[in-house]
Amino acid sequence: QRLYVWEDEQVETLFNDLHTACTSGKDMYYIGGIILVKNRKKDSLYDLVDGQQRFTTLWLMAYELGDLAKEFRNIGLELRIRFAIRPKVEQYFQSLATEQEWSTDLSKEFEDLVRIDLARRRLKELIQFKLKNDEEKKEFAAFLLEKLKFVITTVPQQTDLNKLFETLNNRGEQLSQDE
Fold first, then answer.
1. pLDDT tens, 22-38?
2. Measured between alpha carbons, how far is residue 141 from residues 23, 44, 67, 78, 138 in Å?
3. Are 58 and 44 in contact (CB under 8 A)?
4. pTM recorded for the entire structure
5. Any alpha helices (H) in 48-133, and if so which ranges?
6. Tens-place pLDDT, residues 151-165
């Protein structure tokens, strides 16, 4: 799991694309593919190999939409997203899920949270600015839940995930050894 690296531009682009598709009455919005691998320790879990930036941003968007998009954030009582090797990020998402605002200063010690928190705050602003009333929020949340589509590819557990990720993202940021 690499760091969340999206800046305002990418967050705004995703939100605006979704908002435009929603308000123009599109039947579907295809967001691209994500690649999963079955978790080795728990059969009902999947690890996200590719698509983390988009998926994390969508989860934050669903968080800012509140109960209207709770189905996207959770599977039953569990969060749909986890960060197994990033405990501070995991704590941040757990605090959001339990509606406890993160109160820790996001200084250098919490560097892996800075962009995530900035993205969440930017999404909150965009939702407040673009979705003017409860009905528009409902429509947008319904669009995310019903018309947002991924192509999901599940790869075998024995796949060299680092090599796969680097091949898929040969123009992007490469994983470091610890990632």
1. 999 999 999 988 888 88
2. 12, 26, 9, 20, 5
3. no
4. 0.81
5. 52-64, 70-73, 87-97, 111-130
6. 988 887 777 766 766
Tokens of 83: 């960060």
**How far does the chain reach from its first CA to its final CA, in angstroms?**
5
Looking at the predicted structure, is the pLDDT value of residue 136 above 90?
yes
Question: Helix (H, G, I), strand (E, B), or coil: what is residue 28?
Answer: coil
Tell how strand 46-50 and strand 29-38 pair up: antiparallel
Three-state SS at 120: helix
Amino acid at 65: L
From residue 116, alpha-carbon distances to 3, 54, 136 in Å are 9, 12, 25
Distance, in Å, from the CA atom of 54 to the CA atom of 60, rounded to the nearest integer, reads 10
